[in-house]
Amino acid sequence: KTGGFEQLLTTEDTWMTARLADFYGAESEKIDGFQKVRFQPEHRAGIVSHPFLLSGYAYQKTSSPIHRGVFLSRGILGRALPSPPESVAPTPPDLAPDLTTRERVALQTSPAMCNNCHQMINSLGFVLEEFDATGRFRTTEKEKAIDATGVYRQRDGSLVEFRGAKELAAFLVKSQETHRSFSRQLFHHLVQQPVLSYGPETLNQLTQFFADHQFDMKHLMVQIAVVSATQADQPTAVDTVAK
Fold first, then answer.
1. DSSP letter string over 40-70?
2. C-beta separation of 76 from 165 below 8 A
3. Four-CA torsion 102, 106, 109, 114, nearest 10 degrees
4. DSSP 3-state assignment of 145?
5. What is the pLDDT of residues 90-121, one digit of tens each?
6. How many CB atoms lie under 10 A from the CB of residue 83?
7. Residue 225 pLDDT more than 60?
8. For 14-62, how does the pLDDT look when each residue is reduced to its tens digit (9 = 90+)?
9. Using only C-alpha atoms, what is the Rg of the chain?
10. How far is Cα 35 from Cα 170, in angstroms, rounded to an integer?
């Protein structure tokens, strides 16, 4: 858990008040104010199962595998997703009262024009279906057992299968795609410039530096500062093309 990166994705603790702990089913005894609590370690792991994230990527009354899947695809794994070919309104739950959220989303995105992207988006989002619209753990929906299985096709073409947030987080923390995406997004956040503008190899070098330093986020932040300062005046591939 050096540097916090592994902890970010796999921690079994979170910060709550007694009221929040009661609502989410966490251990609430002896909670005084806002403090760290052990949070359903058999079901949850790190940021991907944090109630704030889960409720933020959901509708008012139902979960949203699409919103959660897009976040995992773009925000965690760094995959590029094109805009939808056309605007499609989600099917309201009231119009499909017998279908679970997973069944309804699968039906809605089954057309070929949707499936190219949603095959990845849905499958990642479905892994978090054990959590409702507010981020509370559940085992059933519409009196049916929750299916929280999913697969992910990596950039090298290999398939990874997982069930639930813990298996998903265990994959993400070891995935080079996650390491690369984190390095790219941290660079953009700190420097406010795309990493490509600092050279075509900079992202690869930062990702390797991150791994070489046991995924210590503080070390990576310092290295990003060094790179942005020392390479700021050097011509890049982007500059050369522009000229």
1. -TTT--GGGG-HHHHHHTB-SSSB-HHHHHH
2. no
3. 110
4. strand
5. 667 777 789 999 999 998 888 777 777 888 99
6. 7
7. yes
8. 999 999 999 999 887 778 889 999 999 999 999 999 999 999 999 999 9
9. 20
10. 25
Structure tokens at 223: 């290295």
Residue with tokens 């805009």: 83
pTM of the model: 0.88
- Least Cα distance to 52 among 148, 134, 161, 146 occurs for 134
* Residue 226 CB coordination number (10 Å): 11
Report the b/e string of 48-59 with b at 16+ CB within 10 A: bbbbebbbebbe
| CA 233 to centroid of chain Cα atoms | 34
Determine the Cα–Cα distance for residues 105 and 23; give it in Å rounded to an integer.
Answer: 27
Kindly indicate the confidence band of residue 74, based on its pLDDT and cuts at 50, 70 and 90: very high
Q: Tokens representing 34?
A: 């806002």
- Cβ-based neighbour number of residue 215 at 10 Å: 21
